[in-house]
Amino acid sequence: MTAGQKSKTVKKSSTSRKKVAPKDPVVNSAFLDRDESWMKFNQRVLEEAEDPENPLLERVKFLAITASNLDEFLEIRVAGTLQRIEDDYRQQSTPDETGMTARERLNRLSERIGAFVAAQYCCWNHLLLPALQREKIRVLRWEELTETARVHAMRFYTDEVDPLLTPVTIDPSHPFPRVLNKALCVGLLLQHKRKSAAARSAPPVLGVVTVPRALPRLISLPGEEGSFDFIMLHELIESQVEKMFRGYQVLARAAFRVTRNSNLYLQEEESRSILESVRTELHNRRKGDAVRLEIEASAPEEMVERLRINFELESWQVFRTDGPVNLSRLMNLYSESKRPTLKFPPFVAREFRLTAKSTDIFDELRKHDVMLHHPFDSYSAIESFIEAAAMDPNVISIKQTLYRTSKDSPIFRSLIEAAQSKDVTVVVELMARFDEDSNIRWARELEDAGVGVYHGIYGYKTHCKLALLVRRDPDGVIRRYAHLGTGNYNPVTARFYTDISLLTSRIELTAAVQKVFNYLTADTESTSYDPLLVAPITLADRLVALIEREAQHAKAGKPAAIVAKMNGLIDRRTVEALYAASQAGVEIDLIVRGMCSLRPGVKGLSERIRVRSIVGRFLEHSRIFSFANSGDEELYCGSADWMPRNLVERCEVVFPVTQENLKKRLRDEILGAYLKDNAKARILQPDGEYVRVAKGGTPFVAQNYLMNLAEPCEEKLPPAKKLAGD
After folding, report:
1. Strands 168-170 and 205-210, bridge-based pairing
2. What residue spans define the domains of the chain?
3. pLDDT tens for residues 543-574?
4. How do residues 52-82 score in pLDDT, each as one tens digit?
5. By CB count within 10 A, which of 5, 176, 404, 640 is most buried?
6. pLDDT band at residue 714, thresholds of 50, 70 and 90?
């Protein structure tokens, strides 16, 4: 495996202000590099794969997730950096806010990627593979197969694989085939078997066979009872290449895969519609410039060099894999191995129930707001909310945003059904990264059903999670009902992403939601969206104002504190406001799952700021923000992280939670649990490294605690804050 260079460029926030110089001599910049911070997040996921306390197949799943994460990082972030350097050579020598040039950062980052890939394969070869074998789960090479297994594999090859293969030899009449992004291929070095001296002395020919994407990457094999044996599809194809290339001697064979630039670059002036633009660019994405070549470590140098030159890569962009190319395919091993004892115990989410005197969900919402914490609270309540609207003849109209959903979503079906009898408007984000193809299909299907489909404000992704119903209630009054959330309308990811949902009929909230929909469909700005914070209009400024208000309270000797949970924190203006608040005396606790450019704990700069990241069974996805506000605490949830793309480049909504019992739940049960986690939490250090919470006392896992609260039982644990002895 080769690596060799370093970090990448970070897009500067358009909301940037003056630089903040750190006063601690151990750091060179007040800001951590976002891409290195992301790599450290993926390292924390890898640590879960390495952790023997996690069930074995869950560890395999974590490893697969790290590979999928790294794919996206390379095809978006690294590809973007390479393209910016190529487009503007001067960027290579201009230092950014971290004090590094783009080329220095790319060099530094490439070294990290190389070391990370080595750690991935070390985990697979030395930890997971031996443990799987002990559990009679085996991924076999062709030569390790029994005769029975070979017969089974060859039957599958003859019936399913061979008809889909197109072997290609590279010569003047056969140019190199167009290898699609992340398509697995088998490369070969071939020598003519002809008798002539000229043929024998000619250099080897390069051969390529693309592994069909339509087939599973792992082929199940017959074995002894209680065992699970598999062979990888490319391994099966490699065993049969002599039959495909008759007349050649196969000198070497190796699987390889190319990762390409997957950024979309829309040309507004040439666009007939956003839908057509995205569809065109999706086609181009499949042919983007190569940014990485993965190839089996057994490949001879001649094959590697020919491929490297063909794909126009530098040597650091070539990664020799000491194991299967594309570890993300190990997710199939997780799903195909029917060993429940090697997975997390099943968890059944808590179902929402109407209170005794409510006749339906609308009656319930007229009395009080309902807040749900997924996946601990079932997502079926949100599906039922939309389904009820579709079936209820008293519901006049439905409006909803869709960023990502699933192909079999009940919500999607409900919207189509509702369009037969009422006005339905859907704002579909076509550029939800890597879901563009499916979103185009959904948009067309919705339009065919009579749904009014819009694509938001051109130039801004629609990332807010909103649904608005208008209903004529039994008393004859027309009322609005809304759902506001932190996560996508996707019932699949709702089972393993943590998110907050708020259902409400409060007039001030639902009226503001309608204003947001007017903005999304007609590009008409309102004079006020209160009490909502809406990007790109009000959110960035209001967020800084909330932080600055805490600083003023601290200076006045009043209660001042911030607790914020999010996925990423890299907006420079927001970070500077947090630094200033820390210096003013505000105690700040941040729960940041992924990238964080803020340096905590630096004397004179951020000594009152603490940052933790939690990686566990569920993907932490909820955004929750708490401001002490001199004792009159304000709590918000929403779709936006504290990143430039959320604050100034997307349509986002952050909403207040004002009902006292719901505020208490957010503060004590949810944020309280995450701040008390001493098992899955890692603490960010001033130098950018993360360390686990010091061992000692009874282990407390926030997600386990929240699952325990959700399980149906007679006695419930007290809130996490009390449990921890506060």
Report:
1. antiparallel
2. 140-329, 361-522, 533-723
3. 999 999 999 999 999 999 999 999 999 999 99
4. 999 999 999 999 999 999 999 999 899 888 8
5. 640
6. very low
Q: Please indicate whether residue 463 is annotated as part of the active site.
A: yes
Edge-to-edge strand list for the sheet holding 248-260: 168-170, 205-210, 184-192, 248-260, 290-296, 318-321
Q: β-strand 370-374 against 395-402: which pairing, if any?
A: unpaired
- From the candidates 234, 455, 463, 553, give the one annotated as an active-site residue: 463
Kindly report the CATH number that applies to the domain delimited by 361-522: 3.30.870.10
CATH topology of domain 533-723: Endonuclease; Chain A (3.30.870)
Query: DSSP string spanning 572-623?
Result: HHHHHHHHHHHHHT-EEEEEESS-B-B--S-TTTTTTEEEEEE-SSSEE---
Q: Which two tokens stand for residue 485?
A: 């959330």
Which CATH number fits the domain 140-329, given the four candidates 3.40.50.10950, 3.30.1840.10, 3.90.1150.10, 3.50.50.60? 3.30.1840.10
d(CA 195, CA 216): 40
The span from the CA of 226 to the CA of 71, in Å, is 34
3-state secondary structure of 204: coil
Q: What is the pLDDT of residue 54?
A: 97
- Each residue of 277-304: pLDDT tens digit? 545 444 444 457 899 999 999 999 999 9
Evaluate the CA torsion angle 543, 546, 547, 549 in order and state its sign. positive
Closest listed residue to residue 158, CA positions, set 218, 240, 253, 245: 240
In the chain, the amino acid numbered 404 is R
Average pLDDT over every residue of 482-497? 93
Give the bridge partners for 484, in sequence order. 466, 502
